[in-house]
Amino acid sequence: MEVLTAKTMGPSKNERPMYDLVVHNAVLLTVDEKDHVIANGAIAIHDGLIVAVGYSRDILSRHDFREVIDAGGGILHPGFIDAHVHISQYTSRSVLACMDGTSVTMGDWKAALTPDDEHASAALAAVDYLRSGYTGFVDPGTIFSPDAVAPVADEFGIRIWLTDPYVADAGTELQKHFPELVSESFLALWPKNRDEAFRRLGSQLFRNKDRNSLVRAFVGLYGEGTDSQALFRAAFDLAREHGVQMQEHLGYAPLLYRQREYALGASMMQHMSEEGLLGSHVTFVHMNAVHPGDVQILKARDVGIVWCPYGQLQMLGRGGAEGRMVELHRASVKVGIASDIPRAVHFGGLGTLATVTAAATGLAASGPEILRMRTIGSAATVGAASELGSLEVGKRADFVVRRPDVSENLGLDPALEFAVIADAGTIDSVFVDGKCVLKHGEVLKADRPAVIARARRSVRGLAARLHLA
Questions:
Q1: 412 has a pLDDT exceeding 70
Q2: Do residues 378 and 83 make contact, with C-beta atoms less than 8 angstroms apart?
Q3: What is the spatial distance between Cα 50 and Cα 190, in angstroms, rounded to a whole number?
Q4: The pLDDT of residue 3
Q5: How confident is the model at residue 343 (pLDDT cuts 50, 70, 90)?
Q6: Which CATH number fits domain 7-78+391-443: 2.30.40.10, 1.10.3720.10, 3.90.1150.10, 3.65.10.10?
Q7: DSSP state of 420
Q8: Could you tell me which residues are beta bridge partners of residue 7?
Q9: pLDDT at residue 299 above 80?
Q10: CA distance 269 to 260
Q11: What is the pLDDT of residue 297?
Q12: What is the domain partition of the chain in residue ranges?
């Protein structure tokens, strides 16, 4: 372990500055450039920012604090960020079996969502996120009523990134290739034509005016062949103009993706690079068919990639997939890990699922690699790596404190132990913007039984409206 001294910002060292909070006597997993592990470390917080990182003895001797927390030797790491989740569908994760043998599709379910249903789904997810060590999540533009979901950020103390709902000018392509996901009622809520799609672009960017808000916006397209090149270019230019990320689904179904490449006569990444449609402000979600030559293109263009392990495992069993997420990460491509729709695993198990999926592609991922992809990697895919994702001076104070007295804490590979193996029961506290939002495993700003009851009423109401058992 490299010897570090406390790094500070603010008043000169001849003074004893008063800061808001210090958490000391912790094992820090910094996830900074060198992935430092600092035994008996501390971080100091002021006005929601990290103002010092280092050894406890250094920080405690040089500063005064309004609040002091002893972590008791527990692990302290940056909060996880779910880089891609269809948040309005969180409460639908066990509904598929009810649709078997009926004419009802997930499109019918999504079309039946009311603003209250979307709020109930996001609220339930927020509780589960915080209890699993997450401090934020990214919805890719599949919220019909963003105004119904945005309040969840302040209600629970969690970060939310969102974008314009269902931006596409060729929505019928989804029906052609993924009929199980759509319905006429669902597509009726999409833009009717290209002009309407253009009008939706950027409709949520007003949320970025308040730099201290827990809700941030980016530019999003639904993707998977539902957008024209003209619409993609408009989104690309708008995101660059506003200094935000642009995201879209791409390469979920490898065989369909390869058909598009065959028609182009080149790999998709090569084509987009030649067209000037790749850049550091672009993120693609899924990319289950990354060809060997794509790795250098993605690296050179600094494109972000969101890895959805469960979806990739599905596609590995259907043919045509080339899972290269670990290879991309080791090539310094921005890779974040996401749940997509957590039908088969809880948020807390996403590290294990990613590890298993990586092994299935033939290139195992280490604990520190999974930790980076769940934290600063995910932040990077939504353009937030300069503010979040690591324990560094000047960044927002979003972090997790784990209990020291748990079986996972053997002290040999803490990144593996707590970013892959450990479950929600190991979490003592979660802080967002330097404020404690979860303590001793309970969300402070939520009545958890009430949140669960509201979600159950929402799901049962939806099922009744769709005549599902």
A1: yes
A2: yes
A3: 42
A4: 35
A5: confident
A6: 2.30.40.10
A7: I
A8: 53
A9: yes
A10: 11
A11: 98
A12: 7-78+391-443, 80-381
Alpha helices in 56-203 (DSSP H): 56-62, 96-99, 106-111, 115-131, 146-149, 151-156, 172-177, 184-187, 194-200
Give the phi and the psi of residue 457 in degrees, each rounded to 5.
Answer: -65, -40
The answer to whether the CB of 95 falls within 8 A of the CB of 468 is yes
The letter for the amino acid at 194 is R
Verdict on whether the full-model pTM lies above 0.85: yes
pLDDT, position 458: 98
Strands in 282-286's sheet, in edge-to-edge order, are 219-223, 246-250, 282-286, 304-307, 334-337
Q: Is 327 helix (H, G, I), strand (E, B) or coil?
A: helix
Q: Is the pLDDT of residue 141 over 60?
A: yes
3-state helix, strand, coil in the chain (%, to 5): 40, 20, 40
| CATH annotation of 80-381 | 3.20.20.140
Place of tokens 């430092």: 36
As to burial, measured by CB atoms within 10 angstroms (0-12 exposed, 13-18 middle, 19+ buried), residue 12 is: exposed
pLDDT in tens, 354-379: 999 999 999 999 999 999 999 999 99
Residues comprising the chain, all counted: 469
Q: Which two tokens stand for residue 139?
A: 């919805």
Residue 396 main-chain phi, psi, to 5 deg: -65, 145
CA count, 13 A, side-chain hemisphere, 354? 34
Q: What are phi and psi of 100, to 5 degrees?
A: -60, 130
Q: Which residues of 90-121 are buried (b: 16+ CB within 10 A; e: fewer)?
A: bbbbebeeebeeeebbbbbbbbbbeeebbbbb
- Tens of pLDDT, residue by residue over 249-296, are 999 999 999 999 999 999 999 999 999 999 999 999 999 999 999 999
**Contacts for 402 with CB less than 8 Å, ≥ 6 apart:** 74, 75, 76, 77, 409, 418, 422, 426, 427, 428
Pairing verdict, β 18-29 and 37-46: antiparallel
Alpha-carbon distance of 383 to 283, in angstroms, equals: 9
